[in-house]
Amino acid sequence: MPELPEVETQVRDLQALVGRKILDLTSDTPKSFRPDFKEFQRKIRNKKILAIERRAKFIVFTLSQNLKLVVHFRMTGHFLLAQDFIPLEKAIRHFFKISGGIVLQFSDIRKFGTLVLCEEKSHLKVCGLAKLGVEPLGESFTLPVLREILQNKKGKLKAALLDQTLVAGIGNIYADEICFGASLHPASLIQNLEPQDFKNLFQEIKKQLRKGVRNRGTTIGEYRDTRGRGGKNQNTLMAYKRHGLPCKICGTKMRKIKIVQRTTSFCPKCQK
DNA sequence: CGATTCCCCTGATAGC
DNA sequence: TGCTATCAGGGGAATC
């Protein structure tokens, strides 16, 4: 599923659209839009794309006339850059006609993706962006900051990693990889973590996310880049979905548990 | 107010 | 083989 590295990869590719105009929009899944499709379509026509940025797992398009388009891929969404309206994949739900002969297609098998159009001055509130925590690949994310974020938190480590109001952009795949890399049991209670654990955790958050970006994302299910190509990070995974398989480090059979409703794979020997 | 549950949706997989 | 049941999951809303 698209997490920070996958969204980052898409955003980098989408820079080709900056300076162009959105001419029209068609969709067979109008439920994905806020406000309702008719209004969304009317408002977005003939708006120029001024900037495209990532915030956590959201993509924020800055448009002319003080508008923001905030996109979230949820489970199966991704954009594809095309020259025409012939669907590049089976589950193309929306087509954005862009100036210069570009058609931006939105693929989304499960239809969970959301596209919200709002005024620039209210977009943080409307889209829930204001509640997001620190950007883990940003300069302001440091070891002392991580300690401060977690110091008064209770509960399990992985639950905190998935909490978008603490550190923003980590999902199920990278959370499992970070716990494995830090040799920490995903169900570890935060209040029991040692100073060295925080250090390892901090380093792994940066390391795993950077590796994901470098590998242009993890493709296990549907994720593709804007040219329809998968990423390479799936070839490097040590933990995610590896329950039942031998640990790549020690050979112990990896286990599966649920944490905040998410399947969690870990090595009972390497992760204490 | 925090923690938990439900819900959205489709395709893959398990079970019979 | 072919059917049905179950599972997967991000985040917002509803509920406890």
Figure out the total of helices: 7
CATH architecture of the largest domain: Alpha-Beta Barrel
Q: Quick one: CATH class of the largest domain?
A: Alpha Beta
Radius of gyration: 20 Å
Helix-residue proportion? 10-25%
Number of domains: 2
CATH topology of the largest domain: N-terminal domain of MutM-like DNA repair proteins
Tell me the total number of β-strands. Answer: 11
**Order of strands in the sheet with the most strands?**
2-9-5-4-3-1-7-8-6
What does this structure look like?
With 272 residues, this protein is α+β, with helices and mostly antiparallel strands. The chain has two domains: 128 residues, MutM-like, N-terminal (N-terminal domain of MutM-like DNA repair proteins, Alpha-Beta Barrel); 124 residues, Helicase, Ruva Protein, domain 3 (Orthogonal Bundle), CATH 1.10.8.50. The chain is built from seven helices and eleven strands. It has a nine-stranded mixed sheet. Strands 10-11 form a two-stranded antiparallel sheet. Strand 3 and strand 4 form a beta hairpin. Helix 6 packs across helix 7. The protein binds a DNA duplex (16 and 16 nucleotides) through loops.
